[in-house]
Amino acid sequence: MSEMRLIVAGAGGRMGRALTRAISETSGAVLTGALEAPGSELLGTDAGTLAGMSPNGVLLSADLWSLSANADGILDFTVPGATIANVAIAAQRGLVHVIGTTGLSASDDAVIKSVTSRAIVVKSGNMSLGVNLLAALVKRVAQSLDESFDIEILEMHHKAKVDAPSGTALLLGKAAAEGRGVALDDHSARGRDGLTGARRSGDIGFASLRGGTVTGDHRVMFVGPYERIELSHLAEDRMIFAHGALKAAMWAHGKKPGLYSMADVLGLRDF
Prior knowledge:
Layout: E1 4-9, H1 14-24, E2 29-35, H2 47-50, E3 60-61, H3 64-67, E4 73-76, H4 80-93, E5 96-99, H5 106-114, E6 120-123, H6 129-144, E7 150-157, H7 167-180, H8 184-187, E8 188-190, E9 204-210, E10 216-224, E11 227-235, H9 239-252, E12 258-260, H10 262-265
Parallel strand pairs: 1-2, 1-4, 2-3, 4-5, 5-6, 6-12, 7-9, 8-9
Antiparallel strand pairs: 7-10, 10-11
């Protein structure tokens, strides 16, 4: 099979640069386009140079339609507005669209889902292989324990992160809710402050910490009478997300249209 031709969206950002490096390290993948926001001072810059490598001749552009003419997929770790703008073009071009953007709203998710009858989308709040295995374990533990065990999710990220709880925390919360057979939106407890009253039975609690340069720490606690089970994942370098996204893109290449997750990529759907 020929190399999979990939576009990196947000190529000038930290995650975009990591994706550029990951593609250069991955057999069977090649960078064919580097997308950046209109008006960015980085437009026209060589993507390889930005990623700390030798120049690769791929210059940052704001024109996804032109870039996508000779591409097979797009790796999209940007912001909700940019991702939604990319969705229609990716679908029209028939690209594999790997979405790692966090902070997407319910209406954003609806837009993404609307194209999956004709487009291949892999979407996850975290592309790390370890985090997605953790989510499968969280679901299984939640299935095994009743509501006498309270579920709390703690996450910490670098001080520049703009959304909370993190997409990963919500991914883990959804896994816990699925294990319990409930909807996360109906059992989510966030931002406790002041006289909140006693903890409501069945809630899934979230706490968010921000500081320094933390790549991403997540802990899921099942807290029962006189005992506690803790499952955790510590990310040490954002390259784990980049390599996971590449694995997702190459797995999805040639699949039927639909909305997939990393659980599908890793064969964990029925774990």
